[in-house]
Amino acid sequence: MAPTPFSTSPSATTTVDSAPTLRTGPDGELRLRLFACERCARRKQRCDRILPVCTPCREASGAVCARSEREKGVVRGKDDEITRKGAVTTLLERIACLESEAARRGVVVTDPEPSSSPEGELTTHSMPRMRVENEANSSQHAEDVLPTACGMDISFLSLSAMAEPRSRQEEFLKQLSMARLVAGVTETYGGNPELTARVDPLWDGISQYIRDPVGVSRRLHIPRREAAKALATYLELVDFRFPRLPLAKVQAGIDAISAADDDEYKRVLETDPAHIFMAYAVVAIVPLVSDNYPIAQGSWVLVHLLGKCLRILDRVFNQEDGVDIIQCLQMLVILSLHCSTAGSAWHLVGFAMSKCIALGYHREDSRDRTDVSLAETQQKRWAFWGCYWLDRLICAGLGRPFSIDERDITTLLPNPDGEPEVPGNKEVSYVHLFRYGILLSSVADDPSRGSDTDTGIFELCIGHALEWRASMPSRDNPALQEINLHQTSLFNTLCLRIAIRKILTGYIFDETNNTDDILAYVRYGYCTTLLSPGECLECEQRRVANMNLVDISRAVAQSFHRRRMVRRNFLSFITGYSAFSMGLVCLYCMAVGEREARKTPASASSYPLGELLDVALHNMEIVGRQFPKIHEYRALVDGIRSVVNEHSLPRSGARLHQDARTGTPQSDIRSTFKATLGIGPFHLRQLAQAIVYISASGQQPDIYGV
Predict the structure, then answer these.
(1) What is the Cα–Cα distance from 53 to 464, expressed in whole angstroms?
(2) Which of 19, 161, 683, 688 could form a disulfide with 676 if both were Cys (CB 3.0 to 4.6 A apart)?
(3) Residues of the signal sequence (predicted)?
(4) How many domains does the chain have?
(5) What digits encode the pLDDT tens for the residues 57-81?
(6) Nearest alpha-carbon partner for 565 in 241, 311, 124
C-alpha cells in the first residue's frame, strides 16, 4: 500500500496528531474551498484551499481557517461548477435565516392581511404582523445581530450574464447606466479644464452625495416670479452665445417647478422629465453670470440645483431617447463652461456628440427624408449642430481633438425659413454660429511648418473670416445689437487665432530636448544660417507689422472691454483662454519690439500695449475666481511680462543671458521657461516659449516704458 500523506516519516507524527482529518468527496478526492480562506486572503498569501484547514493556517499556531465571505454569494454545482446565487436562492436563504432567528427569539410571524393598496406599494397594511410571545426572552437577545445579506461582488460579473433575474431593475447593471456615467463625469473637478482630477476626499464625498442619480418625486420649489426672471436673464445674456434654448420645453418645466401644488410637477415628471431638467439648469446658470449674486452664493445655488438636475437625469435616460437627451446634455455642458463645480466640459460635450452619433443625427440620406416630417428633421439638425458648436468652441480653446471629423458629417444646417413660427433673424444668427464653428475647425488645425504656402494660408484664413463677418445677419438690426457685438468679438478672436498660427510658423520647437535651456529648445525657423540673431529679429518685426498684430490685439481688447463684458456676464473659461491668448500676443509684440499702430495716431495713443495687456489680465482675474487654472495663467503672464521688461530691454547693451557675474537673469528666464511647460493648449505653450526665447536673446532696442 502506498504511504499516505503526513505519515511517511517519524518527524511528521506531531503533524498527523494535531491536524484534523482531511475531507474527501465520494470519489476519494480532496474537497477544496471555493476561494482562499479569510486569513490567507487578508494576508494576500497563497492558499491551497484544503478543507477543513489549509496548509498555511495549519502551520501557523493558533490560526483560525475560516471561509471567505465571497463564498456566501455563490453555490457549488455539479462537477464543482461555481455559479452565482440567483435572486430566488438568495431570497429563500434570507427567509430561512429570518424564520430561524424569529423562532429562537420566540417571535411568531403571521401571514399579512389582504390589503387594498396597489401592488408594489409599501404600506403598513402589507407588512407582516409580528407578535412577541416572551418579552423577557426578546430583550435578552436584543443585542444579537442578524446575519448580513449576501452582497454582490463585481468579480462575478461574467458569471451573472445569463443568470436570473432577467429584469435590469435593482441589479448591478444600473451602476453602469448612461445617467450614472454622466453623473460620474460631473464629479470631476473642473477648475483646471485641461486636467480631469479630483481635489480631496471632502470634495469627493460632497460630489457623490449631491449627485446620487436616484429618481425622487419631491420637487425643489422655486417661486414663479424668480423662475421667470431667471429665464429672461438667460435669454438676455446666455442664449445667443450657445445652442438655441428650447423655449417651449423650458417654459413647461418652469410652470411645473413653480406650481402651487405638487400635482403638476408629478405629472410633468412622469411624462416629460427633460422639461424639468432644463428648467432647473436655466435657473442654475443665471446666478453665475449675474452680478446680483456674489460668486460664492452663485456657486452654492448651482451646486444644489445641479444635484437636483442629476437626480432627474436618471429619469430622462430611462424615458427619453432622442432630441430631449441631447438638449439636456447641452445644458450640462453650458453649466460646466460657467462653473468648475459642474465637471469636465470636454468630457460632457464628448458624451453629447457620442449620443448624437449613436442616434445617427450626424448623417442625412436624401432617400430617408420622405419617411420623416420636416419638423422632426429640423429638430435633429438643431440638436446635432448645437453639439457641434459646443464641441468646436471647447476643443479649439483647450487645444483638444474634436469629437467628430468634418468628413463624417452629412447633416445639413438648420433652415430657419422652414419654421414660420420663429423669428427669422435671431434663428439665422444661430446658424451663423454653426458656420463659425466650421471655420474655427479649419483654423485650429496645425499648419505645416516651414511651408512655402504659409503666407497664402494666412491670407486665405483671414479672407474666410472676413467673408463670415460680412455675411453676419444681425449687423443692421438694432434689436440684435448684443448678438452683433458678440459675433464681432468672435471674429476678432478668430483673427487672433489665425495670427498666432502665422507667428508659430517662424519657429522650430525641439520637443525631444529635455534641457531647460530655452536657446536649445526653440530657434528661428528661417534664414538661420545666413542671418544673425539680430537680423532674424528684424525679420520677425516686419512679420508682426505686416500682420497688424497690435491692431488685432486692440480689437480683441475692445470686445472684452464692452459694457456686457466688464463684469461676470460672460464669465466662462472660453473667455479666460481668449484673454490669455490676447495677453500672450501683446507680450510677443513687446518682445519683438513692435511699435504702436501707425495708421491712426489718435487710436494708437488711446490703447498702448501695456493697457491692452491690463485688459487681458482683468478678464483673466474675473474668470480665475471660478477656474483656478486661468488664475495660474494670469500669474504666468505677469511673470513673462517681468522677463520681457527686464531681459528683453538690456540697459547695459550686453546680452543678459551671457552675464556670468550674477545668475539672476538666467535663472529668471529658466524658471519662466519651465513654467511655460505647464500650459495646456499646444499653440499657446509654443507662443509663450517663443516670447521667452526672444527675451533670452536680448537683441531689440529700448522703445517701451511699460
Answers:
(1) 80
(2) 688
(3) none
(4) 3
(5) 888 877 889 888 888 778 777 766 7
(6) 241
